[in-house]
Write a structure and sequence with these properties.
By secondary structure, the chain is an alpha/beta fold. The chain is built from twelve helices and twelve strands. It has one domain: NAD(P)-binding Rossmann-like Domain (Rossmann fold, 3-Layer(aba) Sandwich), CATH 3.40.50. The longest helix is centred in the N-terminal third of the chain and has 20 residues, at about 95-115. The protein is globular and about 55 Å long. It binds nicotinamide-adenine-dinucleotide and 2'deoxy-thymidine-5'-diphospho-alpha-D-glucose. Nicotinamide-adenine-dinucleotide binds near residues 34, 59, 104, 123 and 157.
Length: about 350
């Protein structure tokens, strides 16, 4: 198999590339990434001598680049991770979310259609379902839960999903979609909750918890997300949506307290700050479809996975420090100049 992984210099895409190299060592992978602020080529440096891996710098909204790439290689599948992914950024600047997440996805779909790629997999999010009330623990998102978005980010991801489904219905483009809950693990950009809190705790700085910290997220280890995508690619039915989740709901404040305990830091570091506008209350995934149809079973227990993740950030201090001090941009700029590796 030859895969095109878009957004592979980001958090989940890079973990997916490492997952795939480990579990499918004979397959070839091309990573297409625009190296935006959230992309970090450094994460992929260990793959430079891997003859099954190639990096291409480029934007999924660039039709010529995408079409030239698809014309030149015979891909068996495209897995689209490329996106603007941070909700807070979508509140301060929505336009790039529409450009990348909606137009970019549509450009890839046009390419899939033109070059008859056998599979397009869209990596989507549980945020397309909106949120659930805090006082109804019996409710969880199912694949047939209506789309009901809150932020410009989730609206852009939902729009992309609708386009993916429309291209399947109208043009018979062979697609699948997975919708996953909050991921944690190595290589997450230090703008998201867990790496932000690790960074602040290690520096003995205030930990900024939005509102009262009562919002609930359903956490999954990034490797378990990759496993779910693997199963969908291997056995998923064309045209279908599959939820992926880890059955791990926890309120933000309880997660932050757990993290402080692991790091042996005092809870007095917690600082309640102004809430996120439109802040989704609770996410919870019903993953029974992927479990019963594809035999999906997450492998990581949350407490052990969280501890391993915290240890990873402690041991890989340089990786995230180079992001915080901006040094990571130097290598990104060099790669942009070269175009591909
Ligand atoms: P990320 O922000 O860490 O990485 C995104 C990557 O996409 C970066 O490498 C960036 O350079 C690249 N990119 C951005 N715009 C691009 C463009 N126009 N062309 C090519 N590359 C571009 O994101 P992530 O957290 O790894 O999320 C990956 C995907 O998974 C996203 O589609 C996101 O919606 C989805 N998702 C994320 C989570 C989560 O918890 N992080 C959960 C469910 C779904
Ligand atoms: O559910 C899947 C989604 O999870 C993905 O689609 C998104 O790409 C990903 O960013 C994530 O979205 P969230 O908004 O849930 O993640 P974030 O890490 O930004 O925030 C998690 C929770 O923590 C949320 O309730 C807001 C809160 N928070 C976040 C930050 C960054 C804080 O309280 N303080 C913070 O500093």
């Amino acid at each position: 198999m030859k895969l095109l992984v878009t957004g592979g210099a980001g958090f989940i895409g890079s973990n997916f590339i490492y997952y795939w190299r480990k579990h499918h060592p004979k397959d070839d992978i091309v990573c297409l990434d625009a190296l935006t602020y959230a992309g970090n080529y450094r994460t992929l440096v260990p793959l430079e001598d891997d003859t099954h891996f190639r990096f291409v710098y480029g934007d999924i909204t660039d039709k010529k680049l995408v079409f030239d790439l698809l014309a030149g290689e015979k891909f068996d599948a495209i897995i689209n991770f490329a996106a603007e992914s941070h909700v807070d950024n979508s509140i301060t600047g929505p336009q790039i979310f529409v450009t990348t997440n909606v137009i970019g996805t549509q450009m890839l779909l046009d390419g899939v259609r033109e070059f008859k790629i056998p599979r397009f997999h869209q990596v989507s999010t549980d945020e397309v379902y909106g949120d659930l009330p805090l006082d109804r623990p019996d409710l969880a998102f199912r694949e047939d839960t209506p789309i009901h978005t809150s932020s410009p980010y989730s609206a852009s991801k939902a729009s992309a999903d609708l386009l993916v489904l429309a291209y399947h219905r109208t043009f018979q483009v062979p697609i699948t979609i997975s919708r996953c809950s909050n991921n944690y693990g190595p290589y997450q950009f230090p703008e998201k909750l867990i790496p932000v809190m690790i960074n602040k705790a290690l520096g003995n700085e205030p930990l900024p918890v939005y509102g009262q910290g009562l919002n609930v997220r359903d956490w999954i280890h990034v490797d378990d997300h990759c496993l779910g995508i693997d199963l969908v690619l291997e056995k998923g039915r064309i045209g279908e949506v599959y939820n992926i989740g880890g059955h791990n709901e926890i309120a933000n404040i309880d997660l932050v307290k757990k993290l402080l305990k692991h790091l042996d830091k005092p809870e007095s570091l917690i600082s309640f700050v102004t809430d996120r506008p439109g802040h989704d209350l609770r996410y919870a995934i019903d993953a029974s479809k992927i479990e019963s149809e594809l035999g999906y079973k997450p492998k990581h227990h949350f407490d052990a996975g969280l501890k391993a993740t915290i240890d990873w950030y402690v041991e890989n201090y340089d990786w995230w420090q180079s992001i915080l001090n901006g040094e990571y941009k130097e290598l990104n700029e060099k790669i942009k100049g070269e175009g591909s590796r």
